[in-house]
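#help-structures

NK: newbie question. if I give both the sequence and a SMILES, will the prediction place the ligand too? trying with S-adenosylmethionine
OV: yes, paste both and it writes out the complex. here, I ran yours:
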Amino acid sequence: MSLNRFREWRIDRMTDRIARKPHGKQARETYGSADAHSFAWEPVLEVLALGPTDRLLDVGCGGGVFLRHAQTQTGCDAVGVDHSRDMVRLAGPLAVLGEVEQLPFTDGEFTAVSSIVAFFFFPDPVRALREMRRVLAPYGRVAIYTTSPEAKGTMAAPYPLATRGHFYTDAELQQLPLEAGFSTARVSRPDEDGWAQLLFAQP
Ligand SMILES: C[S@@+](CC[C@H](N)C(=O)[O-])C[C@H]1O[C@@H](n2cnc3c(N)ncnc32)[C@H](O)[C@@H]1O
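OV: that's the protein plus ligand as structure tokens.
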């Protein structure tokens, strides 16, 4: 293996371990902590406007802290999906193992889909959104909290991890759900630093 390929392999391994497919003790501590990415919760809950009749799917749920928060705050039914076995184990009975591009659920099962700080790892965003749309009821909605291009190189997306992320301008991000078959989409900037984007779309 050349030095360059070895370096790329190490960056891939590090990205997976800490964020893209988290596993190991440190990852369990990070994503099991009660406030993991809690800065995203209120903006996401605000646009989803969940209530006790809603059934929420959180994609890339990590340790499941948002799932439990959403349930407690809104009375909704909540389920998580993640492709990391460690995270699914950590999240407990509310979570199942699965890939965003092949969600292990039937058509129209959910009234809402969320995804927090996971979207920028999805290799094919349109395919991911098409799958989210498939599991949504016709009156459903999706809220995706992701990292903006301006965050590259900051603590929100430090290098070299940032080289493994997919970043979109607001216009590009808004276009993705429309390509995936959603009828409306809008992007807002939920934080003061401008390091985050909130995508909201409806089938
Ligand atoms: C940075 S963590 C965020 C976890 C959680 N949403 C939170 O806010 O604490 C990203 C999560 O997305 C999951 N993930 C990344 N790509 C995925 C994919 N293609 N399918 C399912 N889960 C994925 C990872 O395993 C990881 O748990």
